[in-house]
Structure formats: structure tokens, C-alpha cells
Amino acid sequence: MTHRNPEPPEGSPIPETPGTAIARLIAGLKPRQRLLGLDVGSTTIGLAISDFSQAIATPLETIARTKLMKDIEALRKIVQEREVGALVIGLPVSMDGTEGTRCQSTRQFARNIEPLGLPYGFWDERLSTAAVTRLMIDADMTRKRRGELVDKMAAAYILQGALDAARQAR
């Protein structure tokens, strides 16, 4: 059984867009559940959490990746503690819109964490890390501090983009 975004209703007058897909994901949440945004890298997973109204994304933490089962257990703990009902996973699409090996790795990661039992959707994360890095440089953050924050800030950037698009699609 797959937990990806459910398909739009048959004969739905609303064309499928990334925003409507995330809106459907949100519509499937139970009361008092939140979305967890993931920026999946090869060595870390940046995390961000939505508020209960799915309006605002807040950086949460960065998980240092080790073994898959440990990554899943770290995510499971956060999902339970933070009342998470669905995931928004950043998809590293190339600037020309194509999907390369990083996208394949991210999609495989999503399949690997399906034992969490949560529905998930993908969100184009193009330029997310560059955008938050630029903001942190403009804020005069040291290189060390930027390194500590960039992954969870990128996750918040990704999740906020998805929340904003979903709100416009509703």
C-alpha cells in the first residue's frame, strides 16, 4: 500500500497542480495534526514543522543521517511528539525541470520511510538552500552558524512554499 498523495476525485474540475496535491494532503489531516517538512540530503535531514492551522512553517531540527533504521526511528519519535499527520518532502529538481539522481534518491528515501504510515507529498525544492543561505549571509551569520542552521531552514522554506501554494489552491 502506498501512502503518496491520494489521486484527485474522478471528474474533478480542479486541474492537478503541486498546490492542489498538497491541499489534498492537508485535507486528509485529522484535527490537531501538523505537517513535517523534510529536506533530505546524503548526510543530514533538515526538518520543519507546520502550526496546527497549516499556515506557518518553523525550522525544527537537523538529523545527522546514519543507518536507515536509525533515521526512521528518529523521524518516528518526532512524528509522535509533534502530532504529525503527513510529510512534505523536498524534491531536488534540476534547474531545467528534469529529475536526476538526487531526485531518484529522494524518492527512494520516501519509499523507505513508508513504514511510518504517513501520507506524503513532494515539493520542488529548487534554490531552497541557496535562498536561505543568502538570507543568513545578509543577516551577517558566521559560516559556522549558517552550517548549523541551513538544513532546517531549507526545510522550513520548502514547507512554507508548499503551505502557501496549498492555501492558494483551496
UniProtKB/TrEMBL annotation:
<keyword id="KW-0690">Ribosome biogenesis</keyword>
<comment type="similarity">
    <text>Belongs to the YqgF HJR family.</text>
</comment>
<dbReference type="InterPro" id="IPR005227">
    <property type="entry name" value="YqgF"/>
</dbReference>
<dbReference type="GO" id="GO:0000967">
    <property type="term" value="P:rRNA 5'-end processing"/>
</dbReference>
<dbReference type="InterPro" id="IPR006641">
    <property type="entry name" value="YqgF/RNaseH-like_dom"/>
</dbReference>
<protein>
    <recommendedName>
        <fullName>Putative pre-16S rRNA nuclease</fullName>
        <ecNumber>3.1.-.-</ecNumber>
    </recommendedName>
</protein>
<dbReference type="GO" id="GO:0016788">
    <property type="term" value="F:hydrolase activity, acting on ester bonds"/>
</dbReference>
<keyword id="KW-0378">Hydrolase</keyword>
<comment type="function">
    <text>Could be a nuclease involved in processing of the 5'-end of pre-16S rRNA.</text>
</comment>
<keyword id="KW-0963">Cytoplasm</keyword>
<dbReference type="GO" id="GO:0004518">
    <property type="term" value="F:nuclease activity"/>
</dbReference>
<dbReference type="InterPro" id="IPR012337">
    <property type="entry name" value="RNaseH-like_sf"/>
</dbReference>
<dbReference type="InterPro" id="IPR037027">
    <property type="entry name" value="YqgF/RNaseH-like_dom_sf"/>
</dbReference>
<feature type="domain" description="YqgF/RNase H-like">
    <location>
        <begin position="33"/>
        <end position="132"/>
    </location>
</feature>
<dbReference type="Pfam" id="PF03652">
    <property type="entry name" value="RuvX"/>
</dbReference>
<keyword id="KW-0540">Nuclease</keyword>
<dbReference type="GO" id="GO:0005829">
    <property type="term" value="C:cytosol"/>
</dbReference>
